[in-house]
């Protein structure tokens, strides 16, 4: 293909989540058959067969993928393609984090960054738990999220300093203490929350806001704050727990809970056809509450 002037393009497949149909299987494959609907199994650190795990693909938009049997899991018949395409990463991560928290009845729980897909999935997972669910921080691009607070059974919502006096109008944590904190962006929120952790608490995190040095945004955790962090962990007997994705059992539990009506995945919008620009704008630039899905029609 000849490219010139303003019409130069580059091919860059995207996508770590998908739903698809098995078209062919190898002679040793036993659990899957042609015609099965499948999604990715992102088990980590190991797959069920003992191999190193992780995200099954970062190129789902290629549409034809050559994957191993243990990189996939069947989709329940009751789950739509739109939900299945957006399910596995957030569900598997959320269920793993909640499992590690080992929540007790009446625990005061704090979830940061409510507009994060991981945090939204944790909220859904915790609806069946007897815990007090509080929120710390949300994107300024999701003002309409406030109307869901009572519907989702959230106790209180607090704002970090960089969002106070904004259009949300809520206050900071003041003297609140929490037993478990779920945080997808530890470099963004950790130092603000050091004074709000209970003794014998757990701080479970799964990622960073500033994932690359070239990414500039809100102020993140300064490198010289490590001594303060270590001190707080010691003084409060706090467990600082990292989490990367989840195990096969976490995804299976999420799928079972979905089938039983105890868990759902928030879908913001679905795009198709020539709506590619709108899809990417909604995914990364505009207000959204949940996953943004692109659906192929052919």
Distance between the termini: 23 Å
Main beta sheet strand tally, sense and closure: 6 strands, parallel
Number of domains: 2
Radius of gyration in whole Å, from Cα? 20 Å
Envelope shape:
globular
Name the structural class.
alpha/beta
Mean pLDDT: 86
In CATH, the homologous superfamily of the largest domain goes by the name NAD(P)-binding Rossmann-like Domain
- Approximate strand percentage: 15-25%
Strand order of the largest sheet: 6-5-4-7-8-9
Low-confidence stretches: 165-170
State the helical fraction: 10-25%
Query: Count of DSSP E strands?
Result: 11
Instruction: Report the CATH architecture of the largest domain.
Output: 3-Layer(aba) Sandwich
Q: What is the CATH fold-level name of the largest domain?
A: Rossmann fold
N-to-C SSE series? EEEHHEHEEEHEHEHEHE
CATH class of the largest domain: Alpha Beta
Number of helices: 7
GO molecular function, one term: oxidoreductase activity
Protein name: GroES-like protein
InterPro entries: ADH-like_N (IPR013154), GroES-like_sf (IPR011032), NAD(P)-bd_dom_sf (IPR036291), Zn-ADH-like_protein (IPR051397)
Domain Alcohol dehydrogenase-like N-terminal: 14-40
How would you describe this protein?
The protein has a 6-stranded parallel sheet with strand order 6-5-4-7-8-9, with helices on both faces. A 3-stranded antiparallel sheet has the order 1-2-3. It has a two-stranded parallel sheet with strand order 10-11. It contains 7 helices and 11 strands. It is of the alpha/beta class and 298 residues long. Residues 165-170 have low confidence and may be disordered. The protein is globular, with a radius of gyration of 20 Å. It has 2 domains: 12-88 and 247-295, Medium-chain alcohol dehydrogenases, catalytic domain (Quinone Oxidoreductase, Chain A, domain 1); 104-242, Rossmann fold (3-Layer(aba) Sandwich). Helix 2 packs across helix 3 (117-126) and helix 2 crosses helix 6. The longest helix is centred in the N-terminal third of the chain and has 14 residues, at 88-101.
């Amino acid at each position: 293909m000849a490219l010139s002037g303003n019409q130069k393009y580059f091919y860059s497949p995207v996508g770590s989540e998908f739903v698809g149909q098995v078209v062919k299987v190898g002679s040793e494959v036993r659990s899957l058959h042609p015609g099965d609907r499948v999604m990715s199994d992102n088990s980590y650190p190991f797959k069920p067969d003992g191999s190193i795990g992780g995200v099954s693909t970062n190129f789902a938009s290629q549409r034809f993928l050559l994957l191993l049997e243990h990189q996939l899991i069947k989709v329940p018949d009751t789950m739509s393609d739109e939900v299945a395409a957006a399910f596995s990463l957030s569900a598997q991560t959320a269920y793993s984090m909640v499992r590690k928290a080992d929540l007790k009845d009446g625990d005061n729980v704090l979830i940061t960054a409510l507009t994060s897909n991981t945090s939204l999935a944790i909220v859904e997972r915790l609806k069946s738990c007897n815990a007090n669910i509080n929120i710390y921080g949300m994107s300024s691009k999701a003002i309409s999220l406030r109307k869901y607070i009572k519907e989702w059974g959230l106790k209180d919502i607090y704002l970090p300093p960089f969002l106070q006096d904004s259009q949300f109008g809520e206050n900071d944590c003041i003297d609140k203490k929490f037993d478990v904190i779920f945080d997808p962006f530890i470099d963004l929120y950790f130092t603000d929350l050091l004074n709000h952790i209970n003794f014998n608490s757990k701080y479970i995190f799964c990622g960073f806001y500033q994932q690359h040095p070239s990414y500039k945004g809100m102020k993140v955790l300064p490198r010289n704050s490590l001594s303060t962090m270590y001190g707080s962990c010691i003084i409060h007997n706090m467990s600082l727990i990292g989490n990367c994705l989840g195990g096969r059992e976490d995804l299976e539990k999420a799928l079972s809970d979905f089938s039983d009506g105890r868990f759902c995945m928030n879908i913001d919008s679905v795009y198709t056809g020539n709506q590619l620009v709108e899809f990417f704008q909604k995914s990364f630039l505009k207000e959204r509450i949940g996953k943004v899905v692109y659906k192929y029609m052919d």
